[in-house]
Amino acid sequence: MRLAGKVALVTGAGRGMGRRYALGLAKEGAAVAVNDVEADNAAKTAEEVEAQGSRAVALGGDVSKKEDTGLMVSEVTKAFGKVDILINNAGVNPFILPAEQIKEEGWDRVMDVNLKGVFFCCQAVFPVMKDQGGGRIINISSQAGLFGEQGLLAYCVSKAGVLALTRVLAYEWSRYGISVNAVAPGFIAAGMNEPILGKSELVSALAERVPQKRFAEPEEMVSVVVFLSGEEAAYINGATIVVDGGMGGYPPNPIIDLIRKR
Ligand SMILES: NC(=O)c1ccc[n+]([C@@H]2O[C@H](COP(=O)([O-])OP(=O)(O)OC[C@H]3O[C@@H](n4cnc5c(N)ncnc54)[C@H](O)[C@@H]3O)[C@@H](O)[C@H]2O)c1
Fold first, then answer.
1. Does pTM top 0.90 for this prediction?
2. What is the pLDDT of residues 59-113, one digit of tens each?
3. CATH assignment of the domain containing 169
4. Which protein residues are within 6 Å of ligand 1, measured from CB?
5. Catalytic residue among 155, 171, 176, 250
6. Residue 149's domain spans which residues?
7. At what angle do helices 117-132 and 153-173 cross, to 10 degrees?
8. Chain-centre distance of CA 207, in angstroms?
9. Which of 141, 153, 193, 199 could form an SS bridge with 145, CB 3.0 to 4.6 Å?
């Protein structure tokens, strides 16, 4: 029970990886506030957390709306008295398009949820964490934010923004005992990838880009988020933990094939 007595707020936890993070943190003893813009799904995850024996509260609310994030944090403090851990997980990846075809409203939606939403949630928990003498913020970025990905320009820019935000907040808020880190996952066999998981040719082609030749299992992300939330990670701050099976910087290089054939 590495997180006994702790209170965590997980955004976008009604399904996908957020749900997994909520259940993983609860398994280690944390009480969990489960947010999702789809309030029914938040309620379902909260029930699952309770079924595991931890306390939970379900919070509807759109992270891209500043007012909602303030309400969410006051609901958590009303329910549990504090917020030790914030997992900024809510994110969208609503289109794959050549850069020249991206429309303003699509760009805005991605930035609003993935970047502004993360910032608003950080701002909302700040006074609580400051008053209680510290806290942990873990921002879910993506390897796409580090290395870029064709067809995902807005998503990549939003996730790169999350990495910059992570470093600056770590610098600014360390003095209050707040650490801020990011996780940059590669392909996970869950969440927003679910629609392609049945398409074996596509999955194989994508997995081919990973040195480990496979997608990550959800638990391989949960363990990292739980680790960053606990005492063992007390000196990690402003860091980006890349969990992508080595995919970053691994485009096929034809020269290596030529050398091998010699
Ligand atoms: N699945 C992957 O392979 C992968 C890889 C890298 C990064 N990520 C990141 O992990 C995070 C979770 O992704 P996932 O795969 O579980 O996706 P998902 O689509 O399964 O889940 C996202 C959740 O966020 C919620 N959400 C969306 N907009 C919201 C808002 N404005 N306010 C509150 N909740 C909102 C959705 O309702 C949903 O429950 C995202 O930030 C995503 O970018 C995922």
1. yes
2. 999 999 999 999 999 999 999 999 999 999 999 999 999 999 999 999 999 999 9
3. 3.40.50.720
4. 11-12, 14-18, 35-38, 41, 62-64, 89-93, 113, 117, 140, 142, 185, 187-188, 190-193
5. 155
6. 7-261
7. 20
8. 21
9. 141
